[in-house]
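Long-time lurker. I teach an intro course on protein structure, and each term I like to show students one example going from raw sequence to a predicted 3D structure in token notation. This year I'd like something fresh instead of my usual example. Would anyone be willing to generate the tokens for the chain below so I can use it in lecture? Attribution to the forum is fine with me.
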Amino acid sequence: MRRRIVLLTLLAIELGAGAVLYRGGWLSRFPVVPAVAPPATIVAEPPMPTPGTRVKAVDVRRGDTLVRALERGGMQRDTSAGIAAALAASGANLRKLSPRHTLEVTWTLDGRPVALRYEPSPWLGYAVIPTDGGWEVRRAETRPDVRVDVVAGEVTRSLFEAVEQAGGAAQLAVDLAEIFESDFDFTADTRAGDRFRLLVETRFANDTFVDYGRILVAQYVSDGRVLTGVRFERAADGRRAFYDPDGRSLRKSFLKSPLEFTRITSRFTWARPHPILGGVRPHLAIDYGAPTGTPVRAVADGRIGAAGWAGGNGISVTLRHRSGYETMYNHLSRLGPGIRPGGRVMQRQVIGYVGATGLATGPHLDYRVAKNGRFVNPLGEKFIPGEPIAAAERGAFTGHARELLRRLEDAAPF
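-- Reply from a regular --
Happy to contribute to a lecture. Here you go:
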């Protein structure tokens, strides 16, 4: 606290009369375990108006320029343009002005602006004050104070809901699903009673919780099956990835599902009553029910064999992958950006959006996998595993994994 007061005093002296100091973020609701090496911070505080002034927040709307927002807040155009020019000259990126950003003006009681605070993130802010007929900009940065927290819970209806009820954020549910997406289909296999626990970095600005960072270790239990993922940085190339406790990569060459969160409406079968054409026909695909416009991901790296209208399949994309695999994505509402025959795609790249084109009774994705020209069941196929931990790093990884799993067990025993 003493250091913080000293820093505030020094910054206020440097800025001079009418100085504007600031901080950002929102109140933490989460318990944390001991911090990981708290970094030094350049402290920033909210405006402290001098006698005879008032501070007023400026409403920032989508598509606003800084000049437009300040004018709507009551500032003259030449003044707002001067402030915008000074900020731009100081390196502030005003092209990304957002309603999420903090923008406040300090006014004298007779209506003159004497200071402005612009905070594009909890880690960065600008104080603008008048000087010699122009405007002076001071920049303040807050380095994230990174700690480690535990999030654990049980699924009742959905993984999203369970993570949020455990005190986490929706993005954590996405990150958790991505860790295990090559081994577990969260669109098909999630069920009530599944449990999860993870150690995750939490980022604070001046003791105020801001957001979550990287998941360090995660476990998911479903129907007696325990999935474990440990983040590890390889010394050889610095790449970070998740591995099981035996050092096997959790990232396979193929994802389990081309959609992140949805439901299976029809499975792979050689005899299914056709909903449009009638009769019993093979259905050599997995149908995923999802709203129109849901992004469809490439399940693996590959080259685009076909993209466009394909008769009863509607708008369709076919990708060719290594080891003789092909994947098809049918009934799309439209193609993804840059998707055209002959192009290349990366795993998780959006190649299209769910629709109901062709012979479809409603919006869904018809997803098919062929190996050497023969359709196979996507849910039963054993795809090529990723690269395991190298023998030279096995000892370092084993010690790292054991320590993280011990901390996870101590913090949230199942």
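Some talking points for your students: The helical segments are 2-15, 66-72, 77-89, 159-165, 170-180, 394-411. The radius of gyration is 27 Å.
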